[in-house]
Amino acid sequence: ECKSSGVYYIHTETDKDGRIIEKPPLRLSDQIDIIGRGIDAAGGHYRIIRWRDAHTRRTAALACADIGTPQSWQRLQGCGITILSGRRKRELLADYLQTGGATTPYTVADKAGWQGSAYILPNGEIVNQTSEKVIYNGTGGQAYTEAGGLKDWQDNIARYAAGNSRLLLALGTSLSAPLLHILHEAGGGFHICGDSSDGKTTAALVGLSVWGQPQTLKKTWRGTDLGFSNFALERNDGFLVLDEIGEAGPKTVSKTAYSVINGTSKAQGAKDGGNRPDQEWLILLFSTGEYSMQAYMERAGEPWEAGQAVRLPSVSAAARYGIYDTLHGFANGATLSDHLQQAAAQYHGTAARAWLAKLQTLSADTVRAAQAAFLSTLPDLDGQAARVARRFALAAAALELSAEITGLPAGIGTAGIKQCFEDWFAANDVGKHEDRQIIRSMAAFMQQHAHGMRFADWHSEYTNRDHAGYRREGEPNEKAEYWIIPAVFEGEILQGKDTKKSLHRTARHRVAVQAVRRQTLAIQKIQQRPLLRPTWRRAARFRQPRVKAV
């Protein structure tokens, strides 16, 4: 029996005269109401419990498989529930938890975000709870709170984004995160880079003020892969900020960016053998640092592939006053940053709830139309630039559709996001990242090895273990030719990239490629530009294709 004073075991016994006597109630624990039964996406079963701690009523899903184990008692005690000691008492309490209470069905969600038409915030709050009862069984994000009113947030934070393209990008990224699921878009984000004092972190805090207490919600790049996965899972269908990339090692950055953006956790062992089910999430990431992602990785000798650059493009923070294009009457960028940080600590969390409620009234077609309207203002794009433009377009669409929530006039969001895209576009040479990467790799290889032992003399009969090819000296006024064996060209210069596609990419940089009986290709400098042309050396010792380069 469950009373306000606790859970009791009521039992009777028969005396020697055959009379049934009720024994004194045996107290097992504090009050634990069982309000339903739940099942999760993997088919696991739960009992839905409710209790009162020192401050409020709380609800949780308790896995049936754990009931009666030391882990279950530790969890309940960790929630502030008194569990009396004694084997018999705990056996009786386990029976109550498994068989007692209501049987109302619940859906148990282990990650935040969309659950049907309902949206679960990381603190367990459910926006637009439907007739289907849903309970969040994740770790919880207590910083997803509300402070002040929506009008306070508009007047003290959002209005200063007008005319400030980087603040608009932060707000647009934050607001567009729940749209990924609706539009079936892939995860991704933006990396804002620039001097340490130019206000990048302030922009991130403005974006976080949409959802809750910014300073607590902000995470840093420093941490473990598992920690980042947990951050992302907690923020599924939401917005994640990772501040100051310089605090993390390049290998961690590369692995984390790939893992977090692609939305899958690495395999983990289960306590009963095998692996736990893979965790998946969908997020928009807002990252900050002094250098672009590519520059940071190259300084550390780590690759930053074209696919990663498209999913997490780097945008310079530089505007007229640090990240600001206009100061709205403040003396300088530092005082505006101070105001925004203080205001974000006072007013936050209301915009996300208003936006999630509005999304219930918007169709996917309406969002796509707003996205297309932004894309129509851009020139014709293809490849990497087109993919990056879609991410900017989503941020612009979110700003335009949320105008009544942000208080910003129509068109302000589009103008700011377009400025950010144009700055990215100008800095990235129409996005041909992989083309430049191959050319740089060719040049770096030759600069490192052209005069070393890896190239044997053209007439030599011998090679060494690190053999890369042959060097053929030209006439006195001609440059030497370098012939590179295919395994080295493909493995060390192209580094696993498709050979045919890579040579076509170099053709866009005035490198001509032709095939002659599938024989070899020679690389030469023609008018200071690299040129590939077919050639073939018939030698008794080597009957395989070779590629020569200068």
Overview of the structural elements:
By secondary structure, the chain is of the alpha/beta class. The chain folds into 3 domains: 2-109, no CATH class; 150-429, no CATH class; 433-548, no CATH class. It has 20 helices and 24 strands. Strand 7 and strand 8 form a beta hairpin. Helix 4 (165-176) runs parallel beside helix 6 (200-208) and helix 8 packs parallel to helix 9 (250-262). The longest helix is centred in the last third of the chain and has 19 residues, at 383-401. The chain is globular and about 125 Å long. The model is unreliable at 509-550 (pLDDT under 50).
Describe the structure concisely for a colleague.
With 550 residues, the protein is of the alpha/beta class. Helices cover 37% and strands 19% of the residues. It has a five-stranded mixed β-sheet, with no helix packed on it.
Tag the structure with descriptive keywords:
550 residues; alpha/beta; 3 domains; five-stranded mixed sheet; five-stranded parallel sheet; 24 strands; 37% helix; 19% strand; disordered C terminus
Q: Rough shape?
A: globular
Could you tell me how far the N terminus lies from the C terminus, measured between alpha carbons in angstroms?
Answer: 86 Å
Structural class: alpha/beta
Total strand count, please? 24
Strand order of the largest sheet: 8-7-6-9-13
Please state the CA-atom Rg, rounded to the nearest Å: 31 Å
Detail the topology: elements first, then pairings.
Blueprint: E1 2-3, E2 6-9, E3 12-14, E4 20-22, E5 26-29, E6 33-40, E7 45-52, E8 57-63, H1 70-78, H2 87-99, E9 105-109, E10 113-115, E11 118-120, E12 126-127, E13 134-136, H3 150-156, H4 165-176, H5 179-183, E14 188-193, H6 200-208, H7 214-217, E15 219-220, H8 225-234, E16 238-243, H9 250-262, E17 283-289, H10 293-299, H11 306-311, E18 314-316, H12 333-346, H13 350-359, H14 364-375, H15 383-401, H16 403-406, H17 412-427, H18 433-449, E19 455-457, E20 469-472, E21 481-484, H19 486-493, H20 499-507, E22 520-526, E23 529-535, E24 547-548
Parallel strand pairs: 6-9, 9-13, 14-17, 14-18, 15-16, 16-17, 19-20
Antiparallel strand pairs: 1-2, 2-5, 3-4, 6-7, 7-8, 10-11, 11-12, 20-21, 21-24, 22-23
Helix pairs in contact: 4-6, 4-15, 4-17, 6-12, 8-9, 14-15, 15-17
